[in-house]
Amino acid sequence: MTEIKSTVTYDEKVIQKIVGHALENIEGLLAVSGGFFSNVKDKLVNSDDVTTGVNVEVGKEEVATDLDVIVEYGKDIPAIAEGIKAIVAQNVEVMTHLKVVEVNVNVVDVMTREEYEASSVTLQDRVESGYETAKEATAAGYERAKEAASAGYERTKEAAQNAGEYISEKSGEAREYVSEKAVEAKEFTAEKTEQAKEFASEKKAQVKEAMSNDDEAVTYTATVDSDVVVAD
Q1: Residue 82 falls within a domain, yes or no?
Q2: Residue range of the domain that includes 103
Q3: How high is the pLDDT of residue 92?
Q4: Structural domain total, the chain
Q5: Which of 47, 53, 55, 115 has its CA at 20 to 30 Å from residue 17's CA atom?
Q6: At residue 42, does pLDDT exceed 50?
Q7: Minimal CA–CA distance to 79: which of 23, 32, 28?
Q8: Same domain, 106 and 20
Q9: Family assignment (predicted)?
Q10: How far apart are CA 53 and CA 55, in angstroms?
């Protein structure tokens, strides 16, 4: 049986997500700067993108990562860094079988939990704000669409009325025109009929006159012939 060769590779974003999710419950870690944050009062905050603040380099067998973090004031920072290193290595190696060779932690800020909570926007707040914004935008869009539809209806109604009036007006004009032409045709027909009668009567008289002339000519010829016979 032919051996099937295959390889598994990982996009950097995949490793970034694994690292980001691995950091959720590190005690004393308030945030990976600009991105994923640990639980604060049971709410995940600023969790739009778990990969922000997590930079990785992925090879065929090894992974290196750089983290920018915000640490809670008064906590043991080296211990937090060790906890980060351990949990990142464990999660990446279990899920990908890649060896984590570097976990570089860059502390960009320290804050008390109260300061951090006051400056953070919770995911719930963001969702509610987004919902209200979307709701307002939808309502505004509905009103604009409603107004546009109403205006369109009025324009269509007005155009239909104008068209009806125009058709009615033109229909009346057409009826008047047809009636006028019918009268003209009737008068023209009567006139031509009368002319035809007069012409026929005139021709009849001419024929009658011509026939009368022919009778006179026949009578004259007969008289002449009779005279000739007597002379002989």
Answers
A1: yes
A2: 12-39+48-120
A3: 95
A4: 2
A5: 115
A6: no
A7: 28
A8: yes
A9: Belongs to the asp23 family.
A10: 6
